């Protein structure tokens, strides 16, 4: 790529699951005809699914629902797909747009040029360390919300540690665990998957797992998909689509349990009782008080059991501690002072979800800076329908604030947001217009419409379990606001984004100022 200030119609930042459907989605025909380009800082496409390669990683959503509607895959091998299979699927889907994808290119900043109605986007080429600039009419951020790993902040004196330390999202496949004392920090979805693998496959000497808060853990019935089922999905028209609808509706039923209504509380207490019974039956009794949550089911995303609860391996020990301290080159202590040997520390402590768009600096109208607005402003991260922010024309966000359907397929949510954005883009990408949607060069959401939408989100959120007093990555600790989860079912999300008439009065559509 040369360093000239080249021009594209559409620039997409991120080649993960969000970046791809923009170009392959059936309603994206107009984008296909436009000059679009995808830039990703990684050296492979796939985002989450290329970065996270730790053993035993698989999806927590049935495979058929963790695939695009426009690229159904009857060949999934298991009920819940493994990471290598998902990555191979993403690469297959991206095959036809390969030439539009630029890897190792990190977006460092983007600035709206008011006099030209263009985004000026600055990149760092990670292979040469050179910077270069591209211009585009439309800018998409598809940079993910679980992309920046948390560091070892909760471990005091870490500089004294003499062993190896790495995050689960940067798994070191060269490490020989044989005869080693391993400490795993965290007990979320990643730890739940990799701890049983470590105990079963590595010949390690001891494993101490540090739990900060309990998780609701449910059984995972992961089975090979039978040949007959694959044949039906492959050969009988519409079965794949029907099956996806059925799976989506089934998962959506759980949303009732997230409500603070009489029915919600009743369903929730039944679910909680059955999960407590499962967890207590499966896990050794000395760990029940550490493992069984005291907060409402749904306040955090529930975890599927990958054999984790059978912690009766004599090499394994579970401890509860908010903080750790390195007390010797190869020793670590919990908050009660008990010391454990540690040759290796694996951080399975999640991602920095409070920084939704960092490290990109995005500047809109009148020098308005999105990072300042979201990370320093009193409201935190907010957007209209999760996809547009007032003051930032022609900027579209994927996995933006309050777009994550809790307990459901993130991918389905992404596709619904994509469909909504493509509907919004019509006046920009078509050559003709109507009275409501005149052909335009810019689209910007009005501030009062954005505020009204967020008041609606706050109102809905109050009636749900997500606001329970529990520490979760859904909540921005600075504002105390749940800025990730959509406060409704997936069905409502789909309806509001894909079916409901667009409120064009909420937007300012305008013509190009200069030619
Ligand atoms: C370990 C793990 C397991 C998960 N499992 C599930 C699951 O089972 N079910 C589920 O529904 N969800 C799951 N998720 C959530 C998952 O992140 C989403 O489902 C989905 O993969 C998000 O896709 P994305 O494209 O929006 O983001 P990502 O996959 O994070 O991709 C974002 C891309 O943007 C790129 N990028 C970021 N910043 C820049 C920049 N400045 N310049 C250029 N490129 C940039 C990154 O390199 C990355 O490739 C999981 C997440 C993780 C981390």
TrEMBL record:
Query: What is this enzyme's catalytic activity, as reactions?
Result: L-ornithine + NADPH + O2 = N(5)-hydroxy-L-ornithine + NADP(+) + H2O; L-ornithine + NADH + O2 = N(5)-hydroxy-L-ornithine + NAD(+) + H2O
Q: What is its EC number?
A: 1.14.13.196
Asked if the record carries the keyword Flavoprotein, the reply is: yes
Q: Which SUPFAM superfamilies match?
A: FAD/NAD(P)-binding domain
Q: What GO molecular functions are on record for this protein?
A: oxidoreductase activity
Q: In which pathway does it act?
A: Siderophore biosynthesis
InterPro entries recorded for this chain? FAD-bind_Monooxygenase_sf, FAD/NAD-bd_sf, Lys/Orn_oxygenase
Sorted UniProt keywords: FAD, Flavoprotein, NADP, Oxidoreductase
Q: Which cofactor does it need?
A: FAD
Sequence similarity: Belongs to the lysine N(6)-hydroxylase/L-ornithine N(5)-oxygenase family.
Name of this chain's protein: L-ornithine N(5)-monooxygenase [NAD(P)H]
The source organism is Hyaloscypha bicolor E
